[in-house]
Amino acid sequence: MKKLSVLFAAVMMVVSVGTAKAQKIATLDVMGVLDAMPEKKKADADLKTFLDAKQAEIKKKADAGQAKLKQYTDEAPKKTAEENKAREAELSKLNEEINQMQDKAQKDFVAKRDTAYEPIEKKLNEIVTKVAKDKGYDYIMDANSSAFIYRAGIDATPDVKKALGL
């Protein structure tokens, strides 16, 4: 019985040492930090300007197509079947051009967004790594993640914002 008590005490010591070396985990409001960064605000404004310009270009082409459609529809009874067929083909080609412009604008936007956000994300990751090392965190998790059911640990958001000068 005495050996069992000593064994139990030894197991408890090992468990308590393991608990004392528990990993430090913190959370971070990633979107909150990103939204506070001036670089992201500028990138967002530049992307909005880019997108607005592309949409205006597409709208201009679509409006021209609508005007042609109205004109061709009004004139159709006075035209021959061949002329109407040629006009229909022209309108179909114009519609395809508009669809291609939309696809290209979307691809250009994604490429521009990725290029604009890459240095911002790199800077944030470097700061998060620095804060984690300085504060001794083993993990920093995104506080906005839906994987969290309960969160009551350390919040690293103020430390990261401070390190970024926000």
TrEMBL record:
Composition-biased stretches (Basic and acidic residues): 71-86
Cleaved signal peptide residues: 1-22
Annotated GO biological process: protein stabilization
UniProt cross-references to InterPro entries, sorted A to Z: Chaperone_Skp (IPR005632), Skp_dom_sf (IPR024930)
Entry GO CC: cytosol
Top-level division of the source organism's lineage: Bacteria
Entry-linked SUPFAM superfamilies: OmpH-like
GO molecular function, one term: unfolded protein binding
Record's keyword terms, sorted: Signal
Residue ranges, annotated region (Disordered): 62-86
Family, similarity comment: Belongs to the Skp family.
PANTHER family the UniProt entry points to: CHAPERONE PROTEIN SKP
Name of the featured protein: Periplasmic chaperone for outer membrane proteins Skp
Lineage summary: Bacteria, Pseudomonadati, Bacteroidota, Flavobacteriia, Flavobacteriales
